[in-house]
């Protein structure tokens, strides 16, 4: 893993990961509907009104290495918010299970 590299070379400072989607205006969200497992969320329900969608994870090597799953869930929740979906932690956790991220 990337964090093993940082630790091996003795770097324990800050690292930053950014994901940017541009242009993002009028993009539709298509993710599993965790309530209706067999269908996807209706795309008309969630549409980006932003020109750019950006997600950022920032922390020390040790912090991100120890808490990567929690930080990834926070970033995913921010991503969903860009589409107007105020997803709770239960929805985010269910998506991660469906995506087999653990």
The chain-level structural class is alpha+beta
Helices and strands, in order, run as HEEHHH
Low-pLDDT parts are none
How can the largest sheet be summarized? 2 strands, antiparallel
Sheet-strand content, in percent, reads 15-25%
Strand elements, count: 2
Order of strands, widest sheet: 1-2
Rg on CA atoms, Å:
16 Å
Shape: globular
What is the arithmetic mean of pLDDT? 81
- How many H/I helical runs? 4
Instruction: Give the termini distance in whole angstroms.
Output: 15 Å
Helix-residue proportion? 25-40%
Give me a quick take on this structure:
36% of the residues lie in helices and 16% in strands. The chain contains four helices and two strands, in the order αββααα.
Structure write-up:
With 102 residues, this protein is α+β, with helices and mostly antiparallel strands. Helix content is 36%, strand content 16%. It is built from four helices and two strands, in the order αββααα. The longest helix has 14 residues, at 68-81. The chain starts with a helix and ends with a helix. The model has no long low-confidence stretch (mean pLDDT 81).
């Amino acid at each position: 893993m990337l964090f093993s590299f940082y630790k091996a070379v003795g770097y324990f400072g800050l690292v930053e990961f950014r994901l940017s989607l541009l242009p993002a205006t009028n993009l539709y969200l298509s993710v599993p509907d965790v309530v209706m497992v067999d269908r996807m969320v209706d795309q008309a329900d969630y549409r980006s009104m932003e020109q750019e969608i950006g997600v950022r994870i920032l922390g020390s090597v040790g912090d991100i290495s120890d808490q990567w799953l929690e930080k990834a869930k926070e970033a995913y929740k921010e991503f969903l918010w860009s589409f107007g979906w105020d997803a709770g932690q239960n929805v985010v956790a269910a998506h991660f299970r469906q995506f087999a991220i653990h």
